[in-house]
Amino acid sequence: MKVALFTGVRQIEWRDEPKPRPASPGEVVVRIDRLGVCGSDVHYWADGGIGPERLEFPQTLGHECAGTVAEVGEGVARLQEGDRVAIDPAFSCGQCDQCQVGRQNTCRQLRFMGTPGQALGGAAEYGVIPADNCLRIPDRMSLEMGVMVEPLSVAIYAVRLAEVFPAARVAILGSGPIGLCVLLAVKAQAPCEVFMTDLIDERLAMAATLGADWTGNAAEGQQTVDTIVAREPDGLDVVFECSGDPACIDQAAQLLVPGGRVIQVGIPATERIDLEPHRFRRKELAWLNVRRQRGCMVPAIRMIDEGLIDPSPLVTHRFNAEQLADAFELVADYRDGVVKAMVEIGPG
Predict the structure, then answer these.
(1) What is the spatial distance between Cα 216 and Cα 205, in angstroms, rounded to a whole number?
(2) Which tens digit of pLDDT belongs to each residue from 274-294?
(3) Could you tell me the fold of the domain covering 2-136+311-344?
(4) pTM for the full model?
């Protein structure tokens, strides 16, 4: 089978490897049919790592994927060959103190697909996946939407963590794929007023189409913050930081009502960030960090299937497997209004 590897910064190579078989009870082999290019993947592609986590080449890649069960291993009863599945890329141990209290997302032994030293990436024709991480999708749901289940689940978890309530005043700083997923999740779970910012006008236009009540280009800096403050002088209840830009954390503190919450969803590219602590202290602000998702894959599938959320507009560009490097290059350079690039690896 073919497997894609990072072989250097901005270098991808497809190599031949033996088709995998289930190695332990509870595993299945999945034919990977669709792969989404995620912002965290792009950090590896363009920078060779995320913060202190650096790649050792060659390295498998990718974690947003969906496919078809090709082989069922020992002890698997709820899946069968031919089932179409969305894949939860975070493999937890189920035994540690975190798993025992329902925090599988902070499992002590967590292995994440496409992460150095953890689990193999999803950019391959086949992958061995724990059956518990394979969630059947309805027949009427496309494999592309199966891929979108994972980023949407992160957004749903972020909204739950924020405890967003109806009539809340919300800002989302960053209108990339995850920010737009947060917008969809907010509007579906607690309809309220949403302000959104970004540096790319095409993404702001999509945010407006998907329900944002106000959009502004973050290139205007403090003027954008001042405009939101002028519209909501008492402050906002929740700010989702979805850009990964550390400067946005201080912007969030300026925007929030006393007792408000910053929900950190974006991944900063730097190892350290500087904050102005006294605004946080005086306003008694909470800064909560989102670690992937916790128990939100099934709700994401249900909400897509029931039409409560439609993430299909986010898929703006499509590629075949031979164009995988082109997909990464497009996303890394924010070209052509790209939001989510989708790669067809298998027939699906």
Answers:
(1) 10
(2) 888 999 999 999 999 999 999
(3) Quinone Oxidoreductase; Chain A, domain 1 (3.90.180)
(4) 0.96
